[in-house]
Amino acid sequence: MRIGPSTGLAPVTSGPGGGAFRLELDFIRGEARQEGVVQRLDDIVQTVRATPGRLFDGRAFGPGEMRRGPRGMLIEEGRDNLVADAFAPADQVIAVAAAPHVLSVGPGGGATISGAASGSATPGAPLAFTPAAAGDLSLSITGTPDWVQIEPGAFATSPIETPAGAGGARAGDVISLPDTSWLDPSACKLEVEWEQLQPGGLAENGVATLIRWTGALGYSRLRAGSVSFAQIRGAGGGLAVNAGAGQATPAGIHRLSWEAAGAAHQVAWSEGLSTAAGSSSVTSEPAATGIDALTLGSNGGAEFLNGWLRRITVL
Q: What pLDDT, in 10s, does the model give residues 219-231?
């Protein structure tokens, strides 16, 4: 049995609890491992991002490249950086709206704003601010920071490179697995491990989609935040599972799993996702089979993870 671009991932053939290791997508090491065979994730995972992107340490990735580092694969919503020439910043005046913004800086210096709002940021200590009215900010640079960013939003994201004389943007990371034959929703245990950097999709009521698949009968998904954790489409077209009761997801490493064996389902989650670690069992109907599309870390255009996807394991 082989995994790779030519054959894809091997389909699931045994039910949960059999003790056989089936598939692990390891975004920390950049590998897919299945029955002793190792394949590069770059050959399996498809990244759709129309703009370049960077990690927080400034490491650069081109459009359509997975942003992977030692903490996993970074998945973020799209953002704008209002600072011109952000990786060689100089003092400048920036027009801002009366909405939440964040000022952040890279190693080597700091930045101060005045005018429509005031305050300072240093490396690792961003400044969140909301101007009372639209107006101009005066940005002053101290030292030689690697980058400076002013972005509309409630929390800081990774640095966005911009041209001289203008701001710029980074598109959201839309991640998919074109081959879906390895996932049999009617008999599997699916576990997702991730590191939350910010409350997932804070602008979208604290919702972060972890994994989502769609078929002829509709969508199924695992997600975090102030929502139910698992919504699994049943063979009859309705939701066979709508389980769990979340809360604002704290920063840190979390795990969420869903197990199906015919009409029996169980959802389990680590401490912090809800008021305590726990699980929820449901007996309804088998999950719908037949997957047309599968996305990771968003619903394809919203509910972005805003964190690091570490591992997905199918047993």
A: 999 999 988 999 9
